[in-house]
Amino acid sequence: MTISGSIAFNIDIRMIISPTGQTLTRFLPKPLSSILSNASISTSIHRSLPSRDMDNGAGLSLYPLHRCKTIHLVRHAQGIHNVDGEKSYKAYMRPEFFDAHITQLGWQQIDNLRKHVHASGLLRRIELVVTSPLLRTLQTTVGVFGGEGYTAGMDVLPLMIANAGNSARAAISSLNCPPIVAVELCREHLGVHPCDKRRNISDYQFLFPAVDFSLIESDEDVLWKADVRETKEELAARGLQFLNWLWTRKEKEIAIVTHSGFLFHTLTAFGNDCHPLVKKEICKHFANCELRSIIIVDRSMAGSDFSTTNYPGKIPLGLDMPSDGVDDKSMMEEKQLADSDPKENEKM
User: Fold this and answer.
1) What is the pLDDT of residues 106-140, one digit of tens each?
2) What are the residue ranges of helices labelled H in 251-321?
3) Cα angle at 190 between 184 and 191, to 5 degrees?
4) Inter-CA distances, 87 with 30, 82, 280, Å
5) CATH, domain range 71-297
6) What is the Cα–Cα distance from 194 to 199, expressed in whole angstroms?
7) Which backbone phi and psi does 113 adopt, to 5 degrees?
8) Is 66 exposed, middle or buried (0-12, 13-18, 19+ CB in 10 A)?
9) pLDDT tens for each residue of 10-55
10) Which helix (H) or strand (E) holds 345?
11) Which of 87, 192, 277, 311 has its CA 20 to 30 A from that of 60?
12) How many helices (H) and strands (E) does the chain have?
């Protein structure tokens, strides 16, 4: 038997440390660093395991529904850098791959994922889409979660203009789709690789007019350094900060379009207290345009939202003591009576 079809595995943000034992918070932006102070989050992969595995740290868990969020993780479609990068890792150093765009094969992957999110009903449930502010993730985001074709004269901004980023694709409408917001925290591994450097936000605003870039403070890319590569530990800490930021959002079902390295190093921090097969499922590398759905669980009481489905009962008021409560009350009354009866005490 499963409870809500999920098993929880937990991690405390404060446990992400460097090999030297120092906590990794110095690379985290100050406005969000306060979220990390005492917050802990957990996620649940949709999987059921027999109760005999509970001794292996993979048992069933119960959580109130209003303390959970469903997130749908998506890796971007194939970019031009992926083609040569699959053959040689050194290809990622090539300057012509700056802010790499999606290949034509990648657009086919986007079309297929789009069909899936529509056919499965997923698009109707998603309240917000969060995207990394790089060209390949923005193209994937609007292609999968955006509206239909855009025509001049529409009373809305397009999500993407025609041929954005050498896409050879028609403009995409922002009608009948969830809001899309760009967030720096879910960017790919920072530094050194030109494909992971973004262009100015003002350039993206021209290409993707209906995407919300208001959470990004700097027009220029001040995070990417040509000679300094973000460490894996720093990337994992940034990933966990991103998850904690997600928890501050009011939306309960959110899609995130991001990158392979970001997903791998963030998710590797999870699943150490559950079955090895679940850990493997969580941490394995994402394929291009792969989607996985997981649950974030609030274990720290950080969330303040009230349940929209719970009902307090006892309306109107009435006597409703549970049967075991009645039994306990009767035993207590009998004991008090015996203690106060001197004749009973004499018999003892």
Assistant:
1) 999 999 999 999 999 999 999 999 999 999 999 99
2) 260-267, 276-283
3) 140
4) 39, 9, 25
5) 3.40.50
6) 11
7) -70, -35
8) middle
9) 333 333 333 333 434 334 444 444 434 444 554 444 443 344 444 4
10) helix 342-347
11) 311
12) 11, 9
Residues noted as catalytic: 76, 188
The pair of structure tokens assigned to 40 is 């802990």
Pick from 64, 52, 75: nearest CA to 1: 52
- pLDDT score, position 273: 77
Q: pTM (2 decimals)?
A: 0.78
Please say whether the dihedral angle defined by the alpha carbons of residues 160, 166, 170 and 176, taken in this order, is positive or negative: negative
**CA pair distance 240, 36, nearest whole angstrom:** 9
**What's at 27, amino acid-wise?**
F
- Minimal CA–CA distance to 40: which of 342, 306, 314, 299? 299
CA 14 to chain centre: 18
Tell me the CA end-to-end span of the chain in Å, nearest whole number.
51
Distances from the Cα of 315 to the Cαs of 221, 308, 318, 321, 325, in angstroms?
Answer: 57, 17, 8, 15, 20
Q: Which residue has the tokens 């006892």?
A: 314
Alpha-carbon distance of 118 to 284, in angstroms, equals 26
